Amino acid sequence: MTEQASLGYGRVDTTPPVVHFENVGVRYGTGEEVLHDLTFSIEPNSFQFLTGPSGAGKTTLLRLILLSLKPTRGLLSLFGRDVGGISNDSLTDVRRRMGVVFQDFRLLDHLTTYENVALPLRVQGKDESRYHSEVVELLRWVGLGERMHVLPPVLSGGEKQRAAIARALISRPDLLLADEPTGNVDPPLARRLLRLFIELNRLGTSVVIATHDFSLMEQVDVRRLILDQGRLYIDE
Questions:
Q1: How is residue 154 annotated by DSSP?
Q2: Over its length of 236 residues, how does the chain's per-residue pLDDT go in tens digits?
Q3: pTM of the prediction?
Q4: Which residue from 74, 57, 62 is spatially nearest to 226, judged by alpha carbons?
Q5: Fewest Cβ atoms closer than 10 Å to its Cβ: which of 24, 88, 137, 155?
Q6: Are residues 77 and 166 in the same domain?
Q7: Is 104 domain-assigned?
Q8: Please, which residues have CB within 8 angstroms of residue 2's CB and are 6 or more apart in sequence?
Q9: How far is the C-alpha of 189 from the C-alpha of 158, rounded, in Å?
Q10: The CATH number of the domain where 189 resides is what?
């Protein structure tokens, strides 16, 4: 295992990293820093797990990438753009290039499962005739084909998790961030969802999966970003 400063892993083109941190530190209020001197990149078309003990800062790191939290110090760029002084319009454009699976699902209770999954495409102004079959196919793939017309309060925790994953995947984002995406499903479905993430990565999406599930990580040989006591280490 090597600390993040040694990361350089052989980019040969001029495409900028999807995410780049340089000496980033984060503190809440006047307390001590919770993340220290993060310097690393997430490359286009890459796949990595984000792991570490509880309280190590995984959710804080994801919030930084999502721009819902600003660094206390250091530089952060997304898709080659310094986000330090980014405008609101540009911020919206950057966020639309990301798909996110939250631990609390964040489904809209007044929309059906189908409508929740299709929402990113509706926001982009796409006509339903262009995406209806794709949404239905994805819902069937994640085992929600018979639940697409029900509202979220009727769904189980595992079903909500699958709906949230489908919503994050439907627009084929440039970057997918998933926070414990298999935490509420059984092992066979977890493996199936992992295959879906792998296939999305093969289509060109960079994938970051935050997880404590070592059995999940052992199923695919990819880079691991390991947070420990506020510092990041890389296991290639």
A1: G
A2: 444 433 344 444 568 999 999 999 999 988 889 999 999 999 999 999 999 998 888 989 999 999 999 999 999 999 999 988 888 788 888 988 999 988 888 999 999 999 999 999 998 899 999 999 999 999 998 899 999 999 999 999 889 989 999 999 999 999 999 998 888 788 888 888 898 899 889 989 999 999 988 989 999 999 999 999 999 999 98
A3: 0.85
A4: 57
A5: 88
A6: no
A7: no
A8: 233, 234, 235, 236
A9: 10
A10: 3.40.50.300
